[in-house]
Amino acid sequence: MVKAIVGANWGDEGKGKITDMLAETSDMVIRFQGGANAGHTIINNYGRFALHSLPSGVFYPLITNVIGNGVALNIPVFINELNSLLKQGVPKPHIVVSERAQVVMPYHILFDTYEEERLGSKSFGSTKSGIAPFYSDKFAKIGFQVCELYDDELLMCRLENVCTLKNTLLEHLYHKPLLNPRELFEEMVRQRELIRPYIGDAVEIVQSALGEGKQVLLEGQLGTLKDTDLGIYPFVTSSNTLAAYGCIGAGVPPHEITEVIAVTKAYSSAVGAGAFVTELFGDEAETLRRLGGDKGEYGATTGRPRRVGWFDAVATAYGCRIQGATEAILTAIDVLGYLDEIKVCVGYEIDGEVTTKFPVTPLLAKAKPVYEILPGWKTDIRGCKDYDSLPSQAKAYVDFVEEHIGVPIRIVSTGPKREDIAVRIK
Ligand code: GDP
After folding, report:
1. How many angstroms is it from 25 CA to the middle of ligand 1?
2. What CATH class does 2-99+199-261 carry?
3. Whose CA is nearest to atom 11 of ligand 1?
């Protein structure tokens, strides 16, 4: 049986915490898309971690953690992250990297950086982790599956071809130093030895686990609105962030995904460029940013301030529907405890008309939020584990959000720690 844990919004909804929590009763956790361009913050008895490339099941020694074929595998980041976990006392986790996963090459990171530089004020706000150049190359069929790194002849021959293409751009468009195929070859020979102990036939391992009735979690990165196809293109990531992509990026048969858990925060946050209808500015934004998350709303990968705003029910209803959510988890409700009144966006006004339909990007840019105002609870509820004992205004807020997103909210997260959970629907 497969449960997918995915983001309903722009990412940073708290999926890492939820995956870490649900992993306790699972046998396998799989990352199926994206790369080290986003971080999942996890706080448990070992400490505080920002996982960029490892699956969130790594804190449980009995779980098999899989890096699926859909992932952008940055080998040095993977190894550093693993080493830092071990240094902090986490027992050595069991990790399998799909032999079909493709590798983020050193030049992907360079090209990401150069392109953002070239775009200047029109840049996308990339984390410069090489993700867009990586996925472009994958689909242009000039990428490297990790299994291909072990064939010297193939590796050198493909690198020569890549360098011919890339060096044309480096010389004439970016005016940057050229790539040397021999140097790249040596670097990838070094990297292939680092990753060798973890490589396996992930498709077979996943399929066997399912055959044995094991409980598998798919761990999504970012959220619906960053999906290349159904998100706010072009202000999206370069992979599909939907639970459905788990079938491809992890080799899971579609009928096996029986639960899709959409994680959404009690307010909004986003990174990168693009329209953000409920965005707050000035002091209001600064306060929410400071009080949000576990240490304020600052990117787990870049440390840059996240854009913050009111809960957007239009975007979240769309986000849940497109994910095929069977339930939602509302996180970080504790953060709102300082507010007298809380706004929720229930419609968009576009060219004088109000709609609850999430529009395409050119129309989204014109959308103005239509708010309903709910009373705050002015109480510190961080760490509350008994749903019934929450203030009535907080429960009314959850009821209101549920009604507008159209998906049952089974669990409410009341703090960043693993155990800060209040179950609403048993
Ligand atoms: P992910 O990428 O979806 O895993 O999310 P991130 O880890 O990037 O961002 C979520 C932030 O919210 C992190 O700082 C978490 O520690 C924090 N967080 C998660 N759940 C809660 C919660 O219920 N309350 C509070 N205050 N913070 C939370």
Report:
1. 21
2. alpha beta
3. 293
